[in-house]
Amino acid sequence: MGEAGFLGATIKGYGCAGISDVGNGLITREVEKIDSGYRSALSVQSSLSMGAIYDFGTEELKERLLPEMAKGNILGCFGLTEPNHGSDPGSMETTARLDPTREGVYLLSGSKTWITNSPIADVLVVWAKLDGKIRGFLVERARCPPGTLETPAIKNKTGLRASITGMIHMDNVPVPKENLFPDVEGLKGPFACLNNARYGIAWGTMGALEDCIERAREYALSRKQFKGNPLARYQLIQKKLADALTDATFGLLACVQVGRLKHEGLIVPEMISMIKRQNCDRSLYHARCLQEIFGGNAVADEYHIGRHVANLFVAQTYEGQSDIHSLILGRAITGVQAFC
User: Fold this and answer.
1) Which residue in 32, 82, 210, 319 is the catalytic one?
2) Where found, per UniProt (predicted)?
């Protein structure tokens, strides 16, 4: 993906392609047609890791890291979710404190989980509380003394099996002050990164759904039942395909419109919540319906539909589960905060 220019594609300069938000959405759509795990790796590298450095890092960090990250030579990850705090990142327990023995050094301690790319990441964007305020830090694996940083992989997943997922365990990880994001504090920083990734997810899930539609169509035309008729001849099958294609079309049109507004700087976060929620929900629903066309064959990897269903459940869950986005939209509609 680095050789193709896909990584950090919307970033201007630093060896990145500098394309439009719609163009970047089209990339994520095509990548997720192959597998959601590939798109997840793309999103974490581009929107969450490179995006955080580009938006909040110092110029020195940008010049030193972004060109190599754009090539895929340096891999990043994004540490926000914790074992005890998923949808409630404001309650994170990971802390940062000044090193009492070394000037200009912070010590990070705590754990993050369900972190894409963490077992193989060279640089880790970690959000931690410093004097009670959430701040962003860039941890460089090569600069961590033995025993301070561990990133074990999470094994035996039923979804996103093509994506490497792990944890981040930190025990007084030293981070130089130059690797502190200087001008952002609170959840504004991580949420800005997440909104960019959520935008990509809205596009990507439509790509996965399109692949489900095409595979279900081909299967329905070739599989013959009841007097040698193809499954595609039956009304129930055609309705499943028609419903799925309709939502895929509407979902893509919504992504295009939001992408154009995003590129013009006219977007509000609730727009991204709307398309992330809707497209994840509808892609998962239709993938499950289309799965029924395959009957028992759906459980076999060679037909791929079951893989997409498992992946789309994860896509619906991470970076804001659909119910959380419902509350974000509800707050915008009513003006009443429903997060307790």
Assistant:
1) 319
2) Mitochondrion matrix
- The strand pairing partners of 165, in sequence order, are 116
319 is catalytic: yes
Pairing of strands 123-130, 76-79: parallel
- The predicted pLDDT at position 319 comes to 87
Average pLDDT of adjacent 10-residue blocks, the chain of 340 residues:
93 95 96 95 95 95 97 96 89 95 96 96 97 96 96 95 96 96 92 92 97 98 94 97 98 98 94 97 98 96 96 93 94 90
Model pTM? 0.93
CA distances from 90 to 49, 93, 188 (A): 20, 9, 11
Q: Are residues 282 and 158 in the same domain?
A: no
Q: Name 153's bridge partners.
A: 166
Residue 111: Cβ within 10 Å count: 17
Which range of residues forms the domain containing residue 226? 188-334
What CATH code is carried by the domain that includes residue 43? 1.10.540.10
Last residue of a domain, one of 159, 179, 199: 179
Q: How many domains is the chain built from?
A: 3
Residues 224 and 238 in one domain: yes
Alpha-carbon distance values, 190 to 35, 195, 321 (Å): 25, 9, 16
Q: Which residues are CB-contacts of 95 (< 8 A; sequence separation ≥ 6)?
A: 108, 109, 110, 128, 129, 130
How many Cβ atoms sit within 10 Å of the Cβ of residue 86? 15
Residue 148 forms part of a structural domain: yes
Distance of CA 262 to the CA centre of its chain: 18
